[in-house]
Design a protein that fits this description.
Length: about 150
């Protein structure tokens, strides 16, 4: 028996509809948190949208904040990881990526640590529901996912 190869697609750009999709998936009432300086990356698996990355508060040459929402673990593969880290560190020339994870989101906490993000602190009672957020960051020289040249 042979299995068909899975099809992965990545689309990058400024997609307001993806900001809405990520916001709705995270239960955010609006998209004001994104601001005006952002870009997005959509992850498709076998033709179905399974994840979105909103890169917001972008300061070219400095830093960017990432917010990710997914509906399927299949979004995370080497191709996607190389693509998103390349965008941040090589295209936007950022020195660092920052992100926050809800304290009770064990799957995301485990993932960001495995990807190489470092613990940087807490935002106590930050979420609308009062939940704490754990802050993580990654510097360009710490990135394990940049493509080797």
């Amino acid at each position: 028996m042979s299995k068909e190869a899975a099809s992965y697609n990545i689309i990058s750009g400024r997609m307001p509809w993806l900001v809405d999709w990520v916001s709705q998936g995270l239960g955010e009432p609006n998209t004001d948190w994104v601001g005006t300086n952002y870009y997005t990356v959509a992850f498709y698996y076998n033709g179905k949208l399974v994840g979105g990355l909103v890169c917001h508060d972008l300061r070219l040459g400095c830093d960017v904040w990432w917010t990710i929402y997914t509906t399927n673990k299949k979004w995370c593969n080497r191709k996607v990881l190389h693509h998103i880290f390349h965008l941040a560190f090589d295209v936007c020339k950022c020195r660092r990526i920052s992100l926050g994870v809800s304290r009770n989101n064990m799957a995301s906490l485990s993932l960001v640590k495995r990807l190489g993000f470092k613990f940087e602190g807490y935002l106590r009672g930050y979420r609308d529901n009062g939940e704490d957020v754990i802050l993580f960051g990654m510097l360009k020289n710490e990135c394990l996912w940049k493509e080797k040249k």
